[in-house]
Amino acid sequence: xxxxxxxxxxxxxxxxxxxxxxxxxxxxxxxxxxxxxxxxxxxxxxxxxxxxxxxxxxxxxxxxxxxxxxxxxxxxxxxxxxxxxxxxxxxxxxxxxxxxxxxxxxxxxxxxxxxxxxxxxxxxxxxxxxxxxxxxxxxxxxxxxxxxxxxxxxxx
Length: 156
What we know:
Order of helices and strands: EEEEEEEEEEEEEE
Number of helices: 0
Shape: elongated
Strand content: 25-35%
Largest sheet: 5 strands, antiparallel
Low-confidence stretches: 1-8
Strand order of the largest sheet: 9-7-14-10-11
Radius of gyration: 22 Å
Number of domains: 2
Mean pLDDT: 81
Distance between the termini: 24 Å
Oligomer: single chain
């Protein structure tokens, strides 16, 4: 790996940086687990993991994280696409994004992490729970459903 990462002498003692080798897609190395490059064809950092180059970042550098909150009522299992209730109960629930893969979101019910494909599935802008999130008991936050979107997986 030492031949791919350069640590140039830095004349500014307060600044520290590591230079990652920049190559285009056609000239990138064959790859060994743990290698990191900057792909100039894609304008993205890539890491080599188990026989494949995966994208680590985009050149934009800025991501939007979206959080939707709903409330359970003890009987509703489907939220989004005008199903279920918003946190204040004033409107029907709508996801503010469309989801292609359960693993692209993080879901909590009452602060407890929900496991993709085990506790819930998604289709477009709708999430379906295997069992209904609890109703508001007036004493706890067990009924609050929190869905976080925008934390993308490596390789996408």
